[in-house]
Write a structure and sequence with these properties.
Residues 30-63 are annotated as: Disordered. Residues 32-51 have a biased composition (Polar residues). Keywords: Signal. Residues 1-27 form the signal peptide. The chain has 286 residues and is mainly α. The protein has a domain at 179-267. It contains four helices and two strands. The protein is elongated and about 90 Å long. The two termini are 17 Å apart. Residues 1-47 and 51-61 have low confidence and may be disordered.
Length: 286
Amino acid sequence: MLRHAIRPAVGILPLALAIACASVAQAVPQPGVTTSPAQPGTSVSPAQPGTTIAPVAPPQSPQADYVVPQNHRPVPAETEPAPAIDWQSLHTPEPVEPVEPIAPPPRTVRIGDFYTPAPDQLPDEILNPVNGFSADAEAALSTGLQSIGVNPSRSDKIAGMTAAGAVTGAALLGIPGAVAGAVGGGVGGGIIGAGVGAAIGAGIGVGIVAATAAAGGAVGAGIGAAIAAPAAVPIIGGGALIGLGVGAAVGAVGGAALGAAAVGIPMAVLGGVGGGIAGAAIGGAF
């Protein structure tokens, strides 16, 4: 995973405050207490020799090594385990600050905790909307969890794992389902299309023969029959064969598409729901 962060510096604020308070207490005389002048040759120093008080460094936020759009945040770095859910502190939803969506590094497909380099064939016009939709859904889920009292880092983890589980489950069930549906639909559609196409082609052939006979009949019935009869079989048969091939191809393509949609989409939805639930459970437990 692409996680980049700078660990916050460990400050020594309590030690600095203690020393500062001690120095103030020594510098300001208490009422009724007098201080005697220092003896010759002695000096009072506020700090022990060789002791250096380092300045307190402000905590640093994780910095991204890529440009993060406004109202977004970089991929969070897990510097320490997220605290467990305190079930006793959960409450009904309350207004909270909306969680900012996460902006992935450039040319990266990110859906929750699942992300991978985008292939060169995937244009930004498709990649950016996919990442944006996923990030917005993830942020909305994290906001909802925080509104009921879940720790922000834990809510981020649950939201990320839920999104990753959903896409994984959808792929695991949806893709095989679509393939199976396409195969079945293609075979069935090809058979149906072949029959329909053959019938239509034969009908067209019969129409051509009938038109030829009618044209010859204007001169004489015998002449029309003599012209049309030899060509009847090849014309009707050829039309049937052409119709069979075209119908089979069209039926197979249409049947495959319908079969993939009829089987693949429900399986993908089922897998997405199941994967999302599993991801949420994992995100809440670990």
